């Protein structure tokens, strides 16, 4: 497939006997000669592509370099790489010499202040005068490599002012200063940068080690705290279970005592009610006898109305108010005392270790 760079802009065919005019564009010898022949009457000759004018008519010389490149292209010896001949993207540096859609530049010339693709950079490798030009990797910041004051290449570093300068700056404003070639300063700074990079890597390793140690301490703290929480949960679960059991036992004891006392009290009530009934009946008989006016009848009935001796009723010994303090077993009292020690206002005898270890009060397990 024919390359667009080797086509004549006039006949659109592959360049035949190529010549390059002063503006840099190339044409077939016959094409440009015929064009300029028609402009002889005007005496002003122009480039058919960029319309730049020339006076007088430029002499045309055969572009031998282009001829060689065309020969190689015809023989498929010139095999442009995909990278060299791919079109420039938004982030690429464009070739300043390409026309139409531009290819990606491979090199920039600090002497020409232009960037070239792999095809258009070839003259800098083959033309003796162009070989002296300073080539760098393609960059869009060419002006930053040129002294804004003297429009010369920056190639000197002033250590006194810590500034990049050109040769004219060295002879004028920086005369007598401590200066070296930029390449020499680059070598020294490279060594310093390598040393700084080594120091920085040592700092990274040290911080990584400290980070790992901190993570281990954090993990130990979390595990220790979780173990303390689990142990505390287990202890308080046992305490709650034991206290529930004792509460049930104490409640049953209170109810049993209540039932015994109530049974005895109810028996006493029944006995007292029977006794009161008898006494009331006798009281009614005595009231009736008191109403008798017949002396004989009164005296006959008097002995039967004499009250019999009142029998002694045994009293029931019980405490009318039940106190939980009197009923609690010694084991429950021991737990109550232990729980009081766990109150926030009680001074704990157990302190947490400052090294990250956790400790909790240990409840007595002898609940019996």
From TrEMBL:
Keywords: Coiled coil, Metal-binding, Zinc, Zinc-finger
Pfam families, per database record: TRIM_CC (PF25600), zf-B_box (PF00643), zf-C3HC4_4 (PF15227)
Gene Ontology MF terms: zinc ion binding
Ranges for domain RING-type: 8-51
Region Disordered, annotated ranges: 349-368
Claim: Zinc-finger is one of the keywords in the record: yes
InterPro entries linked to this entry: E3_ubiq-ligase_TRIM/RNF (IPR051051), TRIM8/14/16/25/29/45/65_CC (IPR058030), Znf_B-box (IPR000315), Znf_RING (IPR001841), Znf_RING/FYVE/PHD (IPR013083), Znf_RING_CS (IPR017907)
Coiled coil: 255-289
Domain B box-type: 142-182
Keyword GTP-binding attached: no
Protein name, entry field: E3 ubiquitin/ISG15 ligase TRIM25-like
Organism, scientific name: Coilia grayii (Gray's grenadier anchovy)
